[in-house]
Amino acid sequence: MELEIDIEDWPEGDWEDLTASAALATAQVATELANPRLVTSVLFTDDETIQTLNMDWRDKDQPTNVLSFPMLERTDLIHLDPDEGPPEMPPIPLGDIAIAHGVCAREAAEKNISMRDHTAHLIVHGLLHLAGYDHEISDADAEAMEEMEVKVLALLSIANPYTAITAE
After folding, report:
1. Residue 143, exposed/middle/buried by CB under 10 A (0-12, 13-18, 19+)?
2. Would you kindly state where each structural domain of the chain is located, as residue ranges?
């Protein structure tokens, strides 16, 4: 998967490398994302921008940690053949992810985990949404998505965020 990363209003850091590592690990668990023709954009931005996007697209007037905007239906994604056609075939837009710095930083502090680990989790979460996984459909879907996140994070040597001890 090709990544287009735009970093606005985030502190210095290895956000590009983190995104690439998270995408690679996610594709090892959700193998439909391993298609080299897929293109995903990731925007690291501020709470105000996320709030505007959240209002415009979800009618929720508040910032959130991560938003995902899929451009493919899951059925189309899983039927893509990464070896179909010559290498010069055009890229296939998977979708866009936006991550809010302020919300991410507050959540990391509340959970007593590093900003880097929490950001990796949000990238993984967003990528799984782009792949068509959705934790809001049912408890079973939420559990399946959570299990995938935990597997991906383990590949990144990040502890299970669902059993992590939170700050008091």
Report:
1. exposed
2. 2-155
CATH superfamily of 2-155: Metalloproteases ("zincins"), catalytic domain (3.40.390.30)
Q: Is 129 annotated as a binding residue?
A: yes
Q: Which two three-digit tokens encode residue 66? A: 């991560």
Was 79 annotated as part of a binding site?
A: no
Q: What is the pLDDT along the chain (168 residues), one digit of tens a residue?
A: 999 999 998 999 999 999 999 999 999 999 999 988 899 999 999 999 999 999 999 999 999 999 999 998 887 877 776 666 556 677 889 999 999 999 999 999 999 999 999 999 999 999 999 999 887 776 777 788 999 999 999 999 999 998 855 444
What strands, in cross-sheet order, belong to the sheet with 92-100? 2-7, 38-45, 92-100, 66-70
118 is in an annotated binding site: no
Q: For residue 132, give the nearest of 57, 50, 26 by alpha carbon.
A: 26
Instruction: Residue 64: count other Cβ atoms within 10 Å of its Cβ.
Output: 16
